[in-house]
Design a protein that fits this description.
70% of the residues lie in helices and 9% in strands. It has helices at 2-12, 15-78, 81-101, 108-136, 140-227, 243-309, 313-329, 339-356, 382-393, 426-434, 449-461, and strands at residues 336-338, 361-367, 375-377, 400-409, 412-419, 467-471, 479-486.
Length: 496
């Protein structure tokens, strides 16, 4: 029962998950074997390392003892200060080596040997110091006796060091042989386990492959039927939820969707005929709109000509400006214009407004003539001038004035629209620049859409390099809108 449950769960796994499970099982087995080998080998290696370290320490101890003995004899023969310094230095180094030796005990016998070396070395260094002292005091008889005792201890310590070194070396050799046998044993175990894992994986992969190829063969046969135009085939059975099962289920759904699509296509074709009539009506209305636009321009031109014939020059000029203003606005196919064209449109707008409001607006320009051919997005100046009129000077009690300035500052083209009107609060300026404007119930037209539109088109046209700034000291202090456009004299700022 348990094995059957495991088999069903494995069969419903996706193919990637099956391979992952097999790979994980293989890796776990190999990991366990490697960990076992690592523990054994590491244990043996630590033992060998301990003995090796002790052998090195013993060799260093022997060399240190030789140095003490040699420098002591050199001083006895020469009585030089250099020999005295070398003796004391070698004595201190030997003391350190002794302390390191005394803590490295492996078994009882070796510990006793180390203890003997340590105690004899303490006695040796004490007698050596007395020999030096007797020599310095010129006590020939005493230092001669002490030297003989010191030399005997020196030979005895060397004998103990040699014995301990041999014992450690034998232990090292024994452990090395054990390690070699263990490694060979583990090699055979590893090879056997890997072979078993390999054979098991081959069997599982073969079974998994068979569970994939058989349903794929049935799926390919059904796909051939569909390709030949037969959509009335029976649904393929789905026995598992692996990739093959999912593909089979998707194929069944695809066939069903094709059937539904054919039916929907038939219904769509029936409706398309009806839609053709609606399309013709829409095209007719579009053409009619074009006719109406041109009819408006022709009518305005005819009115201007009639006014001129009747010697109504102001009326004729007004109609001409209105016609030119509207004609510029509907030129949507052109994405850019020159500053000359934009400023001319502003002139037309100011003329129309002054006619409407009996010349209440004082308008002035300060334009650098060398910048008139610079290309900018179409319809960026007139909306700003219109804002200055409607929201700045239209409802003030004093004479309104608007100033347009165009100049170059370093590598920027600056366009300034200034008015002496109602001004703006800092909070309102921030809202307009961020595009967070709300509708004014008292002035439905003052929702800032024109400014927002201008800023967005400048951003797109100049790839976020253009800047819009608004300056105002507050209520009734006027407003300045400043456009800063990237520009160098030798090239056009227009981004194609």
């Amino acid at each position: 029962m348990f094995l059957e449950t495991i088999s069903n769960r494995f069969r419903n796994l996706r193919f990637q998950q099956k391979l992952t499970a097999l790979f994980a099982l293989t890796m776990v087995v190999i990991l366990v074997v490697n960990l076992y080998m690592f523990v054994i080998i590491n244990d043996m290696a630590e033992k060998v390392e301990e003995v090796y370290t002790s052998n090195v320490s013993l060799n260093e101890l022997s060399s240190g003892l030789d140095a003490v003995q040699a420098y002591m004899e050199e001083y006895l023969n020469t009585k030089s200060s250099d020999a005295m310094k070398d003796y004391y230095r070698s004595e201190q180094e030997y003391q350190k080596l002794m302390e390191g030796l005394h803590i490295q005990a492996t078994d009882h016998m070796l510990w006793l040997t180390e203890k003997n070396i340590y105690s004899l070395s303490k006695t040796y260094l004490k007698l050596a110091a007395e020999v030096i002292q007797a020599k310095r005091g010129r006590n020939v008889e005493k230092y001669g006796e002490l030297y003989e005792e010191t030399h005997m201890l020196y030979e005895g310590i060397h004998t103990y060091i040699y014995s301990l070194n041999n014992a450690q070396f034998k232990d090292n050799s024994r452990n090395y042989q054990i390690l070699i046998h263990a490694l060979r044993y583990m090699e055979w175990i590893s090879v056997g386990i890997l072979l078993l894992v390999l054979l098991g994986n081959i069997g599982l992969i073969a079974a998994s492959t068979r569970s994939v190829t058989q349903p794929l063969y049935k799926l390919a046969k059904a796909a051939d039927e569909v390709a030949s135009g037969n959509f009335e085939i029976d649904k393929l059975p789905v026995k598992s939820m692996d990739e093959v099962g999912i593909v089979t289920n998707t194929f069944n759904q695809m066939v069903e969707n094709i059937r539904n699509y054919i039916e929907q296509f038939r219904l769509t074709m029936e409706r398309e005929f009806q839609m053709q009539n609606h399309l013709k009506d829409a095209q007719l209305k579009y053409l009619q709109a074009q006719i109406n636009r041109h009819f408006l321009f022709n009518t305005l031109n005819a009115g201007a000509q009639l006014a001129m014939m009747e010697e109504a020059e102001r009326t004729g000029q007004f109609l001409e400006n209105v016609a030119e203003f509207f004609r510029y606005n509907v030129r949507k196919n052109d994405k850019d214009a020159t500053l000359r064209e934009e400023i001319h449109l502003v002139d037309n707008y100011i003329y129309i407004i002054n006619v409407r409001f009996s010349g209440e607006i004082l308008f002035s320009k300060d334009v650098d003539e060398s910048l008139l051919e610079v290309k900018v997005p179409r319809m960026i100046l007139q909306p700003l001038v219109e804002n200055a009129f409607h929201y700045g000077i239209r409802n003030i009690d004093w004479k309104g004035r608007i100033e347009l300035s165009v100049y170059q500052k370093e590598e920027e083209l600056c366009i300034s629209i200034w008015d002496n009107g109602a001004g703006m609060e800092k909070e309102r300026i921030a809202q307009v620049l961020l595009g967070h404007v709300t509708e004014n119930k008292e002035k439905p037209e003052s929702n800032g859409i024109g400014m927002k539109n201008v800023m967005e088109r400048l951003r797109l046209y100049f790839h976020n390099q253009a800047k819009v700034e608004i300056f105002s000291e507050g209520k009734n202090q006027g407003t300045e809108v400043l456009l800063r456009i990237p520009y160098r004299q030798e090239e056009d700022p227009c981004i194609e």
